[in-house]
C-alpha cells in the first residue's frame, strides 16, 4: 500500500468556478461605478461624451463587451497569483539543484536516514517524490523475499506513483490561463466589430453623426486594446509557468533516476 502524500495547494474546481464568477462581478462593478462614474463625462451624463483626456470615460464608451474583457483580465491576474503561490510551495525550500546534489551525496554514503530528513526540511513536490523512493529503498534493502529486479521495479513503481500525485497539481488551472489567452482576443474582436458597425452606421447617413461615429471608433479601439492586452499577459504567464513546471518535472525525473541507479548498483 502506497503512503505517498502530495503537496497541497491550488484552487479546487469549485473555488476556481467561484473565482471566475467573482471576477465577472468585479468587472461589471468597475465598468459601471468607476469607468461609468458621472464625473468622467460632459454635464455629468454618461450618455454624453467623456471629458477631454478622461481615460476612464473613454474606456466606458467601449460598450458592454468591456466588463467581460475586464473580467478576463482579472481572471488572468487571479490565476497567475495562484500559480505563483502554488509552484513556489511545490518548489520547496532552498535551491533544487543543491538539494538533488545533496541527496546524491548522501546516497553515495548510504545515509538514507539523513537523506529522508533533508526531504522533510525541503518540503516540496520533489522532496515528496524522493522521500517516497527513499522509504521504499530502505524497506527493500534487507527484503530477501524479492530478487534484485523485483526490488528495482518496486522502487520504480513507487516513484512513478509519487510523481503521478505531484505532477497534476503543478499544471492545475493552467488550462484557464490558456483559455483566457485564446478568448481574450476573440471577445475583443467581437467588440471591435460591433464598434465598426456603429461607425459605418453613422457614416451611412446623409450627414454623418460625428458623435456616433466617434463612439463607434472608441468602442472598437478600446475592446481591441483590452483583448490584445489580456491575451498577451495570459500567453506570457502560461509559458512562464509551463517552463517552471518542465524544470521541476526534469528535477523529479533526475532524482528518481539517481535513486533507481544507486539501488541497482548496490542491491543484491
Structure notes:
The protein is rod-shaped and about 95 Å long. The mean pLDDT is 87. Helix content is 78%, strand content 0%. The chain contains 9 helices and no strands. With 268 residues, the protein is mostly helical. α7 packs antiparallel against α9 (210-266). The chain has helices at residues 13-35, 55-60, 65-91, 96-108, 112-122, 125-141, 148-171, 174-203, 210-266.
List the main descriptive attributes of the protein structure presented here.
268 residues; mainly alpha; 78% helix; rod-shaped
Summary, kept brief:
The chain is mostly helical. Helix content is 78%, strand content 0%. It is built from nine helices and no strands.
> What is the subunit arrangement here?
single chain
SSE string = HHHHHHHHH
Number of contiguous helices = 9
Give a quick account of the main beta sheet: strands, pairing sense, barrel closure: none
Radius of gyration: 28 Å
Helices and strands in order:
Elements: H1 13-35, H2 55-60, H3 65-91, H4 96-108, H5 112-122, H6 125-141, H7 148-171, H8 174-203, H9 210-266
Helix pairs in contact: 1-3, 3-8, 3-9, 4-5, 4-9, 5-6, 6-7, 6-9, 7-9, 8-9
Amino acid at each position: 500500500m502506497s503512503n505517498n502524500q502530495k503537496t497541497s495547494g491550488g484552487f479546487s474546481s469549485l473555488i476556481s468556478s467561484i473565482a471566475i464568477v467573482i471576477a465577472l462581478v468585479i468587472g461589471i462593478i468597475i465598468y459601471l461605478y468607476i469607468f461609468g462614474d458621472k464625473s468622467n463625462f460632459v454635464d455629468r451624463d454618461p450618455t454624453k461624451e467623456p471629458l477631454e483626456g478622461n481615460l476612464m470615460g473613454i474606456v466606458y464608451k467601449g460598450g458592454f463587451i468591456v466588463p467581460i474583457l475586464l473580467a478576463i483580465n482579472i481572471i488572468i491576474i487571479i490565476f497567475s497569483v495562484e500559480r505563483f503561490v502554488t509552484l513556489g510551495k511545490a518548489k520547496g525550500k532552498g535551491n533544487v539543484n543543491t538539494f538533488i546534489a545533496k541527496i546524491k551525496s548522501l546516497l553515495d554514503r548510504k545515509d538514507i536516514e539523513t537523506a529522508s530528513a533533508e526531504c522533510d526540511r525541503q518540503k516540496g513536490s520533489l522532496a515528496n517524490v524522493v522521500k517516497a523512493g527513499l522509504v521504499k529503498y530502505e524497506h527493500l534493502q534487507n527484503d530477501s523475499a524479492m530478487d534484485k529486479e523485483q526490488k528495482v521495479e518496486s522502487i520504480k513503481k513507487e516513484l512513478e506513483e509519487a510523481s503521478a500525485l505531484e505532477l497534476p497539481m503543478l499544471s492545475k488551472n493552467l488550462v484557464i490561463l490558456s483559455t483566457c489567452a485564446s478568448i481574450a482576443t476573440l471577445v475583443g474582436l467581437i467588440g471591435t466589430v460591433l464598434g465598426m458597425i456603429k461607425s459605418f452606421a453613422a457614416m451611412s447617413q446623409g450627414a454623418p453623426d460625428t458623435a456616433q461615429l466617434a463612439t463607434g471608433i472608441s468602442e472598437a479601439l478600446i475592446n481591441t486594446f483590452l483583448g490584445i492586452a489580456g491575451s498577451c499577459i495570459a500567453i506570457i504567464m502560461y509559458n512562464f509557468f509551463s517552463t517552471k513546471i518542465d524544470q521541476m518535472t526534469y528535477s523529479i525525473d533526475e532524482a528518481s533516476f539517481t535513486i533507481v541507479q544507486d539501488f541497482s548498483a548496490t542491491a543484491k
